[in-house]
Amino acid sequence: MKKIGFLSFGNWSSAQGSRTPTGGEALLQAIDLAVAAEEIGIDGASFRVHHFARQHASPFPLLAAVAARTSRIEIGTGVIDMRYENPLYMAEEAAAADLISRGRLQLGISRGSPEPALNGAATFGYVPGDGEDYADLARRHTEVFRYGISGAGIAEADPRMGSGLLPIQPQSPGLSERIWWGAGTRKTAVWAAEQGMNLMSSTLLTEDTGVPFDELQAEQIQMFRDTWAEQGHGFEPRVSVSRSVIPLVSDEDRQYFALSALRETRDQVGVLDGALSRFGKSYIGEPDVIAEQLANDAAVQSADTLMLTVPNQLGVDYNARLLENVAAHVAPAIGWRRSSQLEDAANR
Fold it and tell me: What pTM, to 2 d.p., does this model score?
């Protein structure tokens, strides 16, 4: 059975039409949208992380607040840029947020996407070592972070107070199996499988072979699964893909997105960060039409989790209606059922 979550970029702006004029409003509305999504029966609430931009930047206070206001929905990130992170402090924060949520954290991490700052990670105090680039730095931070959440001893104890190596505290059992790597290529998906991390793939791949985006992404997923099967990690991996899915149900929907339906419903190819990249199309239109299109998306069919990118600057009420429309008119076409329906079936 597939899961569906939303992914918010957390943008805020005082521009005309924005319903998130400040960073505070963006954060508070993110919490409210997660609560609304849980009531609708959506399975997950995830948040994008960007630095030096008017978007969410410090995810753990937000994740903990969402955890405290909800009881069922998965909470996560898509993705934390590991170039910027103190990995052991992050291990403490992640374990604390997971404990508050009672084990609902699904943490997406990666090397990250291009940031507005020229040398943002260096400004945070993190620079590659000799022979490293920033991708190597992100992977090194990832290795230390994952070691920290494993419960292994890290710091030498003060002999006046104990002996041996001390682990990071607190620890949250099971969190190590709920770490996802945001992979932008087939090669990095294979690496994620080798490392034992779940796969998170977005609406962008920083490579192009000329085939439609969903087919290239499905190939990425299959390579991940094949490699995982060879590794014998001891648990089943999960795979998520992101899509922009907007059913045009009301006049308000058409006012905002009718033009987007004309120009964004096909793949695009361009250069990003020096690499030829393929961007996936958006699904915007009449609910029955986009339901059929989504059901024929090869990568959506290959994944177990679909993340819906939401236009968070339109506010909580609009995005809650959007999620309800997807849940009612689109998602059943890919085999999804509301969590409330699953619970009712289990209790019968």
Answer: 0.94
Three-state SS across the chain?
CCEEEEEECCCCCCCCCCCCCCHHHHHHHHHHHHHHHHHHCCCEEEECCCCCCCCCCCHHHHHHHHHHHCCCCEEEEEEEEHHHCCHHHHHHHHHHHHHHHCCCEEEEEECCCCCCCCCHHHHCCCCCCCCCCHHHHHHHHHHHHHHHHCCCCCEECCCCCCCCEECCCCCCCCHHHHEEEECCCHHHHHHHHHHCCEEEECCEECCCCCCCHHHHHHHHHHHHHHHHHHHCCCCCCCEEEEECEEECCCHHHHHHHHHHHHHCCCCEEEEECCEEEEECCCEEECHHHHHHHHHCCHHHHHCCEEEEEECHHHCHHHHHHHHHHHHHHCHHHHCCCCHHHHHHHHHC
Per-residue pLDDT of 168-182, as tens digits, reads 999 999 999 999 999
Tens-digit pLDDT profile for residues 49-60: 999 999 999 999
